[in-house]
Amino acid sequence: MPQLRLATRESALALWQTEHVAARLRALHPGLDVVLVPMTTRGDQILDRALAAVGGKGLFLKELEVAMLEGRADAAVHSLKDVPMELEGPFALPAILERADPYDAFVSNVHASFDALPNGARVGTSSLRRQAQLRALRPDLELIDLRGNVNTRLAKLDAGQYDAIILACAGLQRLGFDARIRERLTPPRLLPAVAQGAIAIECREDDAATARLLRGLDDGTTRVCVEAERAMNRALHGNCHVPVAGFAELFNEKLVLRGAVGDVADGRMVRAEAKGSAADPEGLGRQVAESLLAAGAGELLGH
Fold first, then answer.
1. pLDDT value, residue 48
2. 1 and 33 in contact (C-beta within 8 Å)?
3. N or C, which end of the chain is more exposed by having fewer CB within 10 Å?
4. Which residue, 265, 246, 268, is CA-closest to 255?
5. What's this model's pTM, rounded to 2 decimal places?
6. CA atoms of 41 and 59, how far apart (whole Å)
7. Which residues contact 176 (CB under 8 A, 6 or more apart)?
8. What's the pLDDT at 86?
9. CA 116 to chain centre
């Protein structure tokens, strides 16, 4: 029986996502033996410092990529928003699954909605993108770093360390925490992270057999949208050190992309939006990036 080994982080969410991919692959290829290869990454180990300060989201990929290069795994499953805009080395993303809920969630045990937060409320999030947008909406809030997996973050909220926390809707829903979502923070209030809600499968570029097995899970609509978002982010030289948000939607072969760049310190925000052909998501991404830069995003990004 042919075997496919999927490398994954050991967090509950990463394991859920990889089990989900494994189940989809087994259904697509009856007789395929899909096994999980769980491992701890540097990003999971360093929890006492902000992600941007220790090397960014690429820390969640490195060990999984090494496992593929050393022949200990055939592919790796990631949250696409954790995948750097430029894939390093001989790797490709043959499959991007249909996107789940892309928006951010307001989670609180005391307050029914974001607008109900009192002056000076303590709000936890590790994301500079969220912090910048929250600062623009509510300069009075005390924004506090929040690291750890979903369960850890919820436990910190439950222990009373925060009045509210902001998490991705998709992660909460995948782990069965739908009931914890008090409010979905949809655009224009909060633009999500680039590729938020999408799962990607990575393999070696030269491994055609594995790529063939994975390609059947690729969702064309999601790929077009996230390619536009990631192209915008690339053109801005965005990473987790800078507060960049981007969200694309497809309407009858027309792609609409919205982007925003913010400043965590003072809440300044620059926004741009454009419509283009689904046949050229990269071009649309670059166009929105250029509009953002023309409106002053370069200064906020420190270019």
1. 47
2. yes
3. N
4. 246
5. 0.91
6. 7
7. none
8. 87
9. 27
Contacts of 133 (CB under 8 A, 6+ apart): 189, 190, 191, 243, 245, 260, 262, 269
- The token duo for 260 is 């925003």
187: its two tokens: 């655009």
Give rounded-to-5 percent helix, strand, coil for the chain.
35, 25, 40
pLDDT digits (tens, 9 = 90+) for 268-278: 999 999 999 99
DSSP 153: H
Q: What is the DSSP string of 201-229?
A: EEEETT-HHHHHHHHTT--HHHHHHHHHH
Q: Which is the catalytic residue, given 44, 74, 82, 145?
A: 82
pLDDT digits (tens, 9 = 90+) for 116-164: 999 999 999 989 999 999 999 999 999 999 988 899 999 999 999 999 9
CA distances from 6 to 34, 36, 67, 176, 219 (A): 7, 5, 10, 23, 19
Is 82 a known active-site residue?
yes
Confidence class of residue 59 from pLDDT cuts 50, 70 and 90?
Answer: low
| Measured distance CA(181)–CA(94) in Å, rounded | 32
Q: Are strands 91-96 and 122-124 parallel, antiparallel or unpaired?
A: unpaired
Task: Check whether 252 has a pLDDT greater than 70.
Answer: yes
Instruction: Identify the band that residue 55 occupies on the pLDDT scale cut at 50, 70 and 90.
Output: very low
Nearest to 93 by CA among 116, 64, 118: 64
d(CA 84, CA 300) in angstroms, rounded, equals 20
